[in-house]
Amino acid sequence: MTASPPESVTDFEARPETDRGRWMYEMLLAVHAAIRRDLELIEGLAAQARDGVDAEDLGRQVRDLTRGSILWRLQINCLRYCSFVHSHHGAEDADFFTELRETNPAINPVIDRLQAEHRRVSNDLDAVEVAAKALGEDDGHGSRAALVEALSALRENLLAHLDYEERSIGSTVRRVGGMS
């Protein structure tokens, strides 16, 4: 018996989208929007802390985030954020990407790239976590600058990753099996 050739992208995209797939893609976009929003907020806090903005002034700007000193808020928010992004990427690697590979085998090179990017972003998140934890021991200019630098590297790699992921997997996600 001869194996049939893999489905071409054109053939695949001719398949109908599913309700489940459209819902999954909308959820992915919503999570990515939250990741972008929170990254921008945390970077703003870090930049202001680095620039020596008075803690009282900075505190008024983020009063609704949590209680405590500005550096404590910055540290907690950075750590919470890193944990969330690690969890999101872990879930994609463990389950979501497997389903996409089964739905559309032609997407395998894209998934391979996304998983490699997850590892790079994971290293960036680890660097942010280390820098955020260091604020608890030393809130001097060097510690503040290290956090801003780590966040800058994270921003560059993470935003490029999110953009590529959204562009590259949308068609497949919207055709994931389930409800039609």
Total strands: the figure is: 0
- Please mark out the parts with pLDDT under 50 across 5 or more consecutive residues, or reply none: 62-69
CATH topology category name: Four Helix Bundle (Hemerythrin (Met), subunit A)
- What percent of residues adopt helix (DSSP H or I)? over 70%
Class from helix and strand fractions: mainly alpha
What would you give as the CATH superfamily? nmb1532 protein domain like
In summary, what is this structure?
The protein is mainly α and 180 residues long. 77% of the residues lie in helices and 0% in strands.
Task: Describe this protein's structure.
By secondary structure, the protein is mainly α. It has one domain (17-173): Up-down Bundle (Four Helix Bundle (Hemerythrin (Met), subunit A)). Helix content is 77%, strand content 0%. It contains six helices and no strands. It has helices at 9-14, 19-50, 55-61, 70-103, 108-134, 141-173. Helix 2 (19-50) runs antiparallel to helix 6 (141-173). The chain is elongated, with a radius of gyration of 20 Å.
List the helices and strands and how they pair.
Elements: H1 9-14, H2 19-50, H3 55-61, H4 70-103, H5 108-134, H6 141-173
Helix pairs in contact: 2-4, 2-6, 4-5, 5-6
